[in-house]
Amino acid sequence: LSFTVLKTVKESLDYFPNLEVITIFAEGVPERHALKLGLYAKKKKVVIIGPASIGLLVPASVKLGAIAGVEPMQLERAKVYDPGKVAVFSASGGMTNEIINAVVQHGGRISFSFSIGGDRFPVFTPKEAFLSAESDKNTELIIYYGELGGYDEYDLIELKNSGKLTKPVIVYIAGTVADMFDESPQFGHAKAKAEFKKESALEKRKALKKAGFIVPD
């Protein structure tokens, strides 16, 4: 299956030159394959979301995958036909859907959303997701659900400090319970393990808050 992802995505990019966005739902794609796909996507000028993504949503325009639900009642609750001003991102597919529903239930609407994917090397990174929201004229607020492990959030801090990210951001970092253990446990996603202190949820929260992000406890 893992080799099939690399093979079929590359073949799709070769055979369909008008493709602009691809979402990879498969999990457990080998890291070297994900990195190869990232390089190939840049060469072809195509956005690849995933691996391990539940999809992409642009209300009233496109819904690709299980994002925002699959049943008519779920789609109505998520107001997928009603564009708004809030961009939602998360590595977690489940939390992407949870946040979409929370935004809508509190009177907001989604400008666009996708789950970045839970593998260690997502092809379309959180940094690129934030830059896309920054450049989107319809987006006024970004909500991001992150987690322990990796250094993606420090890239977001760099964007803010350099003035490339000006829109308000609410960011929640999950995994503070890991600090109760002598060694950080491995959580559900491949990247969700803090090998070093800087990767811990608590350290990320402190750094993000210091940089001016809205960081709930």
Keywords:
about 220 residues; alpha/beta; 6-stranded mixed beta sheet
Outline the fold blueprint.
Layout (H helix, E strand, L loop, with lengths): L1 H14 L5 E3 L7 H14 L2 E3 L5 E4 L3 E4 L6 H6 L8 E5 L2 H13 L4 E6 L10 H10 L5 E7 L4 H10 L7 E6 L26 H11 L6
Parallel strand pairs: 1-2, 5-6, 5-7, 7-8
Antiparallel strand pairs: 3-4, 3-6
Helix pairs in contact: 1-2, 5-6, 6-7
Mean pLDDT: 90
Strand order in the largest sheet: 4-3-6-5-7-8
Distance between the ends: 39 Å
The residue ranges in which pLDDT falls below 50 over 5 or more consecutive positions are: none
Number of distinct beta strands: 8
Taken in chain order, the helices and strands follow as HEHEEEHEHEHEHEH
Helix content: 25-40%
Oligomer: single chain
- Structural class category: alpha/beta
Please describe the biggest sheet, giving its number of strands, its sense, and whether it closes into a barrel: 6 strands, mixed
What's the Cα radius of gyration?
17 Å
Shape: globular
How would you describe what is shown here?
- The chain is α/β, with parallel strands linked by helices and 217 residues long.
- The chain is built from 7 helices and 8 strands; from the N terminus they run αβαβββαβαβαβαβα.
- The chain has helices spanning 2-15, 31-44, 72-77, 93-105, 126-135, 152-161, 201-211, and strands spanning 21-23, 47-49, 55-58, 62-65, 86-90, 110-115, 141-147, 169-174.
- The strands form 2 sheets. The protein has a 6-stranded mixed sheet, with helices on both faces. A two-stranded parallel ribbon has the order 1-2.
- A hairpin with a 3-residue loop joins strand 3 (55-58) and strand 4.
- Helix 1 packs parallel to helix 2, helix 5 (126-135) runs parallel beside helix 6 (152-161) and helix 6 runs parallel beside helix 7.
- It starts with a helix and ends in a 6-residue tail after the last helix.
- The mean pLDDT is 90.
